[in-house]
Design goal:
The chain is mainly alpha-helical. It has one domain (16-254). Strand 2 and strand 3 form a beta hairpin. The protein starts with 15 loop residues before the first helix and ends in a 17-residue tail after the last helix. Helices cover 67% and strands 2% of the residues. The longest helix has 27 residues, at 216-242. 41% of the residues are buried. It has eleven helices and four strands, in the order αααααβββαααβααα. A two-stranded antiparallel ribbon has the order 1-4. A two-stranded antiparallel sheet has the order 2-3.
Length: 333
C-alpha cells in the first residue's frame, strides 16, 4: 500500500471502477431534475428506494466484504430504524434528529449484545445466531399490538430535521443520497486505515491476526456495531419513504436480499453495493412488465429469470459486476 496508512491510496481517475462510480453518482445526482423534465415523480421515489437499499447494503458489506462475517439478520436493524420513526411519530414526536438518535442508540446497544454472543462463533454458527436474533425481534414486533402488530404501523408524520422536511420527495431523495455518499466516503477511509487493515486481516486469517497481538474480537464487534447503525439509518429513511413501519422489514428475506446486492455488485468493494442495489431493484421493477409483454402465460414466473441472472453473474463474475472492473494501474485483473 502506498503512502501513510491513515489515509486512503490515491484515486486512479481513469480506472474503470472510478469512472463507473463517478458516472453512477452523477446520474443519481441528476435524477430528480431529469424526472422533473419528464413530468414523472415516480422515479424519484424509486431512486430513493434504491439509495436506501444501497445504504443498508454498504452497512452489511462493511462486515461481510471486509470482515468475512456473514450475517443473515441485518434486516432487524433496518426494522428498528423504521420503528424508531413510526412509534415516536405516533406520540407526536416528529424531530428527525430524535428519530435518528433513537435508531442509532437502539441499534448500537442491540448489536453490541448480539455481536458479543455471535462473535464467539464463526461460519455457519454465526449465520444461524444472527438469524435467530432477527427472528426473535421479528416476532417481538409482531407482538406489538398497540403499534399495529403484524399489520405494521403507519407513520403519522414524516421526520422534520431543521429546515429539511422529509415529506418532500425530492428533499428525502437528496438526504438519502448525501447520507449514502458520506457513508461511502467514511467506509473508504476506514477500510484503508489501520482499523480496516486489521479487520481485513481477520477475514483472511483470524488466528494469525490474533497471534500477531491484535484484539480481533474487539475489532470485529466494533465493525458489527457500526454496520448495524448504518442499517438502522437506512431504516429511518425507509420509514419516511413508505410512511410505514412493519415487522416484514426485519424478515430474513430482506437480509438475504441485502447479501445478494453485496455479492451482485462486488463483495469487498466500497462502491459495489450501490451498483448491486441499482441492478437488482431495476430488474425487479422491469422484469415483470417485460415478461408480461414477451410471454404473457409466464408473467408470474419472472423471478425465475431474475434467479438465472444472479446465477450467471455469480458464476461468470466471481467478484461481482463492479468488482470485476479494474481498480487502477496496479490492478492486474
Amino acid at each position: 500500500m502506498n503512502g501513510n496508512l491513515w489515509f486512503p491510496e490515491p484515486i486512479h481517475w481513469t480506472a474503470p471502477r472510478t469512472l463507473v462510480a463517478l458516472v453512477v453518482l452523477a446520474a443519481l445526482a441528476l435524477l430528480p431534475a431529469i424526472t422533473g423534465m419528464l413530468g414523472s415523480d415516480y422515479y424519484v421515489s424509486f431512486g430513493t428506494r434504491v439509495l436506501i437499499y444501497a445504504l443498508a447494503a454498504v452497512g452489511l458489506n462493511f462486515i461481510l466484504g471486509f470482515g468475512g462475517m456473514v450475517s443473515l439478520g441485518h434486516a432487524m436493524y433496518v426494522m428498528l430504524g423504521a420503528y424508531a420513526v413510526a412509534i415516536p411519530a405516533s406520540h407526536g414526536v416528529t424531530s428527525g434528529w430524535t428519530h435518528l438518535a433513537i435508531a442509532a442508540a437502539t441499534a448500537a446497544v442491540l448489536a453490541a449484545g448480539v455481536g458479543a454472543v455471535a462473535l464467539r462463533t464463526s461460519g455457519i454458527a454465526f449465520i444461524m445466531i444472527t438469524l435467530a436474533f432477527a427472528q426473535m425481534l421479528y416476532f417481538g414486533a409482531v407482538g406489538l399490538k398497540d403499534y399495529g402488530g403484524d399489520d405494521g404501523l403507519t407513520v403519522a408524520e414524516r421526520s422534520v430535521a431543521g429546515l429539511y422536511d422529509l415529506s418532500n420527495p425530492t428533499t428525502l431523495y437528496y438526504v438519502a443520497l448525501v447520507t449514502l455518499v458520506l457513508t461511502l466516503y467514511l467506509s473508504w477511509r476506514t477500510v484503508l486505515s489501520p482499523f480496516g487493515l486489521v479487520l481485513r486481516a481477520t477475514k483472511a486469517n483470524a488466528r494469525r491476526a490474533t497471534a500477531l497481538g491484535h484484539p480481533v474480537f474487539r475489532y470485529q464487534l466494533t465493525a458489527y456495531v457500526v454496520s448495524a447503525v448504518i442499517c438502522a439509518v437506512a431504516g429511518v429513511l425507509l420509514a419516511n419513504l413508505t410512511k410505514f413501519a412493519s415487522p416484514s422489514y426485519g424478515a430474513w428475506t430482506l437480509s438475504g436480499e441485502l447479501i445478494v446486492i453485496v455479492i451482485l455488485g462486488g463483495i469487498g468493494t466500497v462502491f459495489g453495493p450501490v451498483v448491486g442495489a441499482i441492478i437488482l431493484l431495476a430488474l425487479e421493477e422491469l422484469l415483470p412488465s417485460l415478461v408480461e409483454i414477451a410471454m404473457p402465460d409466464y408473467k408470474a414466473n419472472w423471478m425465475l429469470l431474475l434467479g438465472l441472472f444472479i446465477f450467471v453473474v455469480a458464476l461468470a463474475l466471481k467478484r461481482g459486476v463492479f468488482g470485476s472492473l479494474r481498480a487502477g494501474r496496479g490492478d492486474s485483473r
